User: Fold this.
Amino acid sequence: METAIWWDELKSRTNPAFRRLYFAKTRYLVLMGGGGSGKSIFAGDKVLSRVTCEAGHRWLVCRKVARTMRESVFRQIVSQAKKYPRADGLKVNKSEMMIEFPNGSQIIFAGLDDVEKLKSIYSITGIWVEEASEITESDFNQLDIRLRGETPYYKQIILTFNPVSVTHWLKSRFFDREDENATIHHSTYRDNIFLDEDSARVLESYKDTDRYYYTVYCLGEWGVTGNTVFDAGEVTARLQAIRSREKPDTGIFEYEYDGRRIENARGTRCADGYLKLYRPPEEGVPYVIGADTSGDGSDWFVAQVLNNVTGEQVAVLRQRLDEDVFARQLYCLGRLYNDALIGVEANFSTYPIKELERLGYQKLYLREQEDTYTGEFKRSFGFRTDAITRPVIIAGLIQAMHGGIGLINDVTTLLEMLSFVRNARLRPEAEAGAHDDCVMALAIAYYIRPQQTMLIAPPAKEKWSRSQWEDYENADTEERKYLIKKWGKPASR
Assistant:
């Protein structure tokens, strides 16, 4: 069969959303998607396209448990192979779960729990892991090691799965960082032109009956396994909505620093910057910043910026640097947002607060503390999270998010909200393996809002020179309107 004819045949049986992936040659092809998206059918077609066109393959297809193979992926590929171009003369060994092709290629099926069979499989040239969310990262590493040796063809591991939890190792390994060796693809039932109408209608119906199920299992968004503190359906819907928007400005602050003061601070755009701006500062608008410092096992410093009139999240500073760098970035962030009120967590270190004081930052959150000896109240800079204040600020954030999830613009923050769950004692906390720095910084920001004004300041009036006043007084009504528009409304003489 001529190549052009073969490709036409292949295209006719492949969803348009997947066609380009036949040419993806990265070591890892990561196919995440919802139910009915057709990702597993495509993976089977790609394996067949390679073993039939490239002689001598020994392709391993696996799942976590061997007994699940026969009635799932083995049956699927046998069915696909019998209709496949260039697959005439294949032999199916049902007892051993193996398919052999006339050109010497083989597809071998095994469960990762079938240790003895895996030991006997050698010279692997490609791997497809179906339901990859079932395997551990250690399982994956063992497979990755087995894909080695001399071959004239590119080596590839195909991973197909429905997303399960935002804390899953697949997310942190392939989605939370860029890997030049990985091609990432996301699909839903809407991408499957071969899905019958009844199946599509059933999947679509979950949009009205169970929004969370629809978002995770139909649209293939990351889910969560615990009892979420925030409404999981609303959070995932917000994630879906903001991912279609333009990415925020990302960068860092640069400045001159002589050891005593910061001058000439300016934002610099860079792709790997740790500051994300979703809304630029507006003249006269008051802002608040809640900051969670690195401590108690956390390795992130986070600052959340809110428009104090609307409560909207307008910027996020999130970094893994030293305290002094964080404090100076926080200083610049506060100055940028109209000298925002800054509330810094004071539990594990007061250094960032003291550094902001030393740099001359004027607007720091003040908390009241009762002197246990005198009974008098004293005021100290910073926010202290303890057994009393933690439930209060979390409850405040939960209340603010009732109908207010549209105020949150940051993907990382929303993902943390999705993995912020109640433990066995119903205490709200990050799910095992997840972070809560963004959530806690956001909770502090919402809590300290009353200490900042919620009114927009009127625009500053311009001070006119004597000659400007003379021109104004000699002008007629229309000319005066023009001069005010040109020079700005004047301050009193």
Remarks:
- The chain is about 35% helix and 20% strand.
- The chain has three domains: 3-223, 249-451, 460-493.
